[in-house]
Fold this protein.
Amino acid sequence: MPPSIPRIEQPPGLVRRVVRRWHAGAVERVDDSIAEEVPVAFVCNGEPHVVMMATPCDLEDLALGFSLSEAVIGTAAELAAIEVHDLIEGIELRLHIPPARAEALRRRRRNLVGRTGCGLCGAQVLEDALRQPPRVGAGPRIDVRALARALAQLHDGQPLNVATGATHAAAWFTPDGALVVLREDVGRHNALDKLVGALVRAGADIDRGFLVVTSRASYEMVQKAATAGIALLAAISAPTALAIQLAEQADLTLVGFARGDGHVVYAHPRRIVESTERGA
């Protein structure tokens, strides 16, 4: 009998494709890992709501996190059921929410297509696009060394991105910089929604941790974080001016250019303890 071929474990959300790779003047055919991107439709109480392009993993987390961060529901208890249906065209998430929430959704008239890079495509009125979340709670105070420890764990915590190089991540850390949970997706908004859903499903104390995202801190990212009650958001890239404005209004600590050797605080620096950075 021929020897058995060992099965290579791979993270969900990727496919294998044979590609032609050119390097240093040589061409070879290799088996490559590619991140999946499929249409995911949200249907609330039988009515279409939104279609997102997303990585098809952790979909229950995505459904709950999106519903909370977009104020479709107010609490996790209002999402009575999530049904995941694989269709030829993509994936359908059928959500069951209270009738009053479904009616409010109809009044918002927000039936949109959300692309990977845009969280506001199709919002029909300014109130939908620039929704003001409530002010966040006290949140943690973290040492700069805890932020550095958190950043050091990001790479190894992203198996999908390590394999494909094509996904964003949103990660949750304890105040001392220990990784609690991380979610990945081709869309930065989706990764954050998946993380929010995972935290809520696990019953995590949102006031006892902080968020790190592997993207820029856009207005939508700050909006989603604040809506979920997250008080400290650190991004490895830059924020936008509107994101800083919302962070100021929501009392959210916003950190940009978070790297192992430094960072920039754009709003509410009191939650970052920088005095111990030297001489400790």
Summary: The first strand starts at residue 14 and ends at 23. The first helix runs from residue 59 to 69. Residues 1-8, 110-115 have pLDDT under 50 and may be disordered.
